[in-house]
Records
---
Amino acid sequence: MSASFRLLKSRFSVLSPVGFTSQPQRSHPVSCPVGGRRLSRAQTGENAGPLEGVRVLDVTRVLAGPFASMILGDLGAEVIKVERPGAGDDTRAWGPPFVGTESAYFLSVNRNKKSISVDLKHPRGAHIIQELAGVCDVLIENYLPGKLQQMGLGYEQLSRVNPQLIYCSISGYGQTGPQAQSPGYDSIASAVSGMMHITGPEDGEPVRPGVAMTDLATGLYAHGAVMAALLQRHKTGRGVHIDCNLLSSQVSCLSHIAANYLNAGKEARRWGTAHESIVPYQGFRTKDGHLVVAAGNDKQFVRVCQVLELMELTDEPQYKTNKLRVQNRKQLLHTLSRRFLQEKTADWLRRFEGSGVPVGPINSIQEVFSDPQV
């Protein structure tokens, strides 16, 4: 351990685990409670995580950044989360439900971390971050572009302190461009990126996905970029500045929807649970719930018909190939839907067992965590 970091440790007292930090008053640039318990211990040998020995300074809040740093912590990195004095991370108050005094939301993306409160606007607080950056491998931040630079905490400034520092910036729209200074939240990026345009019932309004997929996708991209940068640093000996943002992450996740437009000029639409290019590939209402069936090829379609005892459909010329089924989806889905309503979900699952057709119930969250596979 470096002398610099030993000095910081003595200044902070004990870095305490996230979720058990009492937030100090704003008059202090940095604080940690005395007697706090460390959340993780260094491990060696087979029990050591792949990122054991990597130290991450997490200067992010809400979801995308904390999710990325949490994954790094899950992989064995030491993660030091920096929060503002007083309220801390905004998501500490995002409840109910609460676990003790902390929101379940906050705890869901902040495990395997230690927490300190630092006032970055205070000169001494900014100096603390500079010192920490000097002994960390990775810094992740999600301030508006240029904001940390004004505090002396930008990439160019901190890379002079630590040339090996991997500096990951997460923002709404990236470090450059006409929207760079606009704040970004998952719902806004989901709307601007077209994600909401393709999500929702076929003839209904655009719908926000049930979980913040734009934030989570950005966190995954950021985590992957940090992993790649660590590998690159092993070769070059130098750090790098990573520019990761919500809009680019979600646009990249449009996948074939984007390809359809860019290559064929085809505008996308909402399909509910159905698939634009595969039939049948969607949810069906059963006698007591819902079931999703995914027949990805002609052979699987025949097996669906066998299970449903509708083999006459396989003789219909308009259903012989997937292309034809897509063209004639309305009548085919009407027939299949009426049949699925005649049995309960569990009965259909038993019937499909061993058929080779991918099927699954639409579970409630309680059912998810009652599933033995989970």
---
Amino acid sequence: MPRRPVKRASSAQKSSQPSQTLNSAAMGSGRSASLSVTETEEVTASIASLTLDTPLRPFRKPKPKAPEKKFPLLSLPSELRIKIYEYFFAEITEVLDLTRENHKRIHKKLGLMRTCRLISNEATHFFYSTRTFRLFPTTPGRFFKTKKPLLARLSARQRQCLTRVELRLGPGWSAPPAGWVVNTGLGLKDCIHVNTLRVYVEVDPSDNIFNNFRRADGFYEEFSRKLLENILKGLPSVHAIEFDAYESVQKHGAMMRSLFSIATKFDKVITWGPDRGWFGAPEDEEPPSKNGVPNRYLDSIPITGFTAQSFVAVA
């Protein structure tokens, strides 16, 4: 089989190949040298940045946002600001007691009164004059037996704004807490604008259902009568007493008759609350109860382990 002719490179081509190899080697060495110089500079800069000789880069502050247009609250008429306060405090209940939930429900709202003097005066007067403050705590818990009720924890300025206070009778009827006492620490002398005292009766221990459970006959009735008398002595500005009660409390029971006598003694106007449905004068007949059978205290207040029927059977 015949061999193919082999093309041999010319002498010029042979001489050019080594020069190309040298050039590529030179270019590669130059490129590696430039890379090594760049890396060296970066390492040197990073090390130098750790020293105090290298100046720090200037901190770039973010561009400030354009200020929003402020609402001209103080430019509004006072009547409109009162409407705003009414909406702002709408979530807070009408009757305030000393409970541990007050910090969650009320404390943040009262921060409005720390803005300026004008808003502080208006908001303070609106809030404390539109709420009913309970004289002695009735919520079971850490504050039930406290010797410093809610009224005593208010400042004199706040007590001067009050217009309504509430005395709730019934909790602790067998052993009233020691903190339920009228003294100078309660701060009644500062309540110069209170015109209505609300007396809410939860229980009448003279009812036969409480036989064999009373501390003594007439004990709680006498305690409540003296407590109401001392409160009225400390609140000469009170004009009317609003009586209300649970459905189990009878209008002509020993408990209510003792309270009516104190209200008459101090020549106060007697009004009726919405829950019990009483009307007319204290000596008038009370409205008929539901289904012709008066509700008992234990029917409305569940007590674990006991039923109203068991107490009625014992009575």
